[in-house]
Amino acid sequence: MFDVYGDKDGFVAVGWRADQTDRDHPAIWQSVDGATWIDVSPSAAGTLEKVVRQPGGVYVAAGVDENDSFAVWRSEDRTHWARVAISAPAFRPGAFLTIGLASSTDSLILVAETATGWKSWTSRDGQTWANLAVTDADPRPSRGTVIAAHEDRVVLFAGETNELWVGRLTPIQ
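and the corresponding structure tokens:
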């Protein structure tokens, strides 16, 4: 289990599990009370790293698939999850997996270190994702995770070097 989201409606936890051939599969559990958990994992390959809930009630989980490409999953009820298409480059082979996912007042922010550097996306519904440019970002931490997002700002924390980084996210036309 890598991440848990909880509020008055219940909890969602995400992570991965290996099968008998050591192939990874995304794992999703949901709970109403935090004590009893139900496995609602999709049948796919890959891992999940982060989960958030948008103010409108949509849950979004992010990770990678079996090809080290982005895997974004969406649910309106914590139980039924559907994979969402997102155009993104693959991660650097052998690199530390760096995915951040945060919910702002009206949108979701996804930031990741890919084979071509830091990339960012935003979505208002968890279904359709638009590219964002990361600006005001010097120096950027070598790796980190999103800890907060608000309007056009995102905050990352790089645990290895204890760096906090605040960047501005602007739409790419």
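(Above: one complete record from the training split.) Residues 154 and 167 are 5 Å apart (CA to CA).
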